[in-house]
Design a protein that fits this description.
The protein has 195 residues and is an alpha+beta fold. 24% of the residues lie in helices and 34% in strands. Residues 1-17 have low confidence and may be disordered.
Length: 195
């Protein structure tokens, strides 16, 4: 018996999961903030009856600069990235996120936490990191108009944009170099830069 939504088109080919490594710089919330964010994510999941679980507190992060995808991560790449990141000194600054929205994608849509404010310290740090990484010859994926955000969970449909009654705020004093093992849902936290 055909599923009513299939319209007789037959089974869909399986989606090929990405493999390899992705290396990127990111900010991570402190433990108390991560718990607060995780509570917000569970509330969103319950409100919209999302089938997927929120990302674990340990995986929550704000991506800054993508250093690229490769089939196998080389030690020299890690060393060069760490050397560059170490040159990007910064004063601790505060991030404020107060808005929930959905990014449009063809598959599962990321439900994200972001801010209406400019988060100037975050944008300034990202530009410094891009300059430092470019200075050691790394080809970085840097977009100066990117929207800083933290993915909470994935959902099959868009959700209504709304504001949090209590904004999520934390002080940033370190930058992380993160290795994402694509297709495995696993991160390796390679190195923090603390100020």
């Amino acid at each position: 018996m055909l599923n009513q939504l299939d319209f007789g088109s037959g089974p869909k080919p399986p989606t090929r999961r990405p493999t390899g490594s992705n290396l990127f710089t990111a900010l991570r919330p402190d433990e108390a903030t991560a718990r607060q964010v995780h509570t917000v994510a569970r509330d969103i999941r319950d409100m919209y009856r999302a089938h997927r679980q929120p990302l674990s507190s340990r995986r929550l992060h704000v991506s800054l600069i993508n250093l690229g995808h490769s089939e196998e991560l080389e030690d020299s790449m890690i060393f060069t990235a760490r050397e560059a990141i170490d040159k990007a000194r910064f004063e601790p600054f505060t991030i404020t996120f107060d808005r929930i929205m959905t990014f449009k994608q063809e598959t599962a849509r990321p439900v994200v936490l972001c801010g209406n404010g400019e988060n100037i310290g975050l944008l300034k740090l990202t530009a410094q990191l891009a300059d430092a990484l470019d200075g050691v010859g790394l080809d970085v994926g840097y977009n100066p108009t990117f929207l800083p955000h933290m993915t909470l969970l994935y959902h099959h449909a868009p959700i209504e944009d709304h504001h949090l009654s209590t904004p999520i705020t934390w002080t940033v004093n370190e930058v992380w170099l993160i290795h994402s093992l694509l297709g495995q849902g696993r991160y390796e936290f390679l190195w923090p830069l603390r100020n």
